[in-house]
Amino acid sequence: MPETGYPHGDSTLPHSRNTATTIATKSGRPKQETADRQPLRKNAIACCQLDRYGITS
């Protein structure tokens, strides 16, 4: 999961969006599946158990 807090030494900030787009493009997954960084959203929802607050993918 990408870090979104204060920039850490291993962070991609301020290039996080570009990094996510590059990873999605190079993944070989269908474009529809990687559109709008959906895999990142789904991972965050699962990791933080946000579905209990009604947040879904």
Features:
57 residues; mainly alpha
Structure characterization notes:
There is one protein chain. The chain has helices at 16-26, 31-34, 38-47. It has 3 helices and no strands. It has 57 residues and is an all-alpha fold. The mean pLDDT is 79. The protein has a domain at 16-25 and 33-53. Helix content is 44%, strand content 0%.
Overall number of strands: 0
Percent in strands: under 5%
Tally of contiguous helical segments? 3
| Mean pLDDT across every amino acid position | 79
How would you characterize the largest beta sheet? none
- Oligomer state equals single chain
Helix content: 40-55%
Structural class, by secondary structure, is mainly alpha
Basic shape: flat
N- to C-terminal distance: 15 Å
Nearest-angstrom radius of gyration? 13 Å
Sequence of secondary-structure elements: HHH
Low-confidence stretches: none
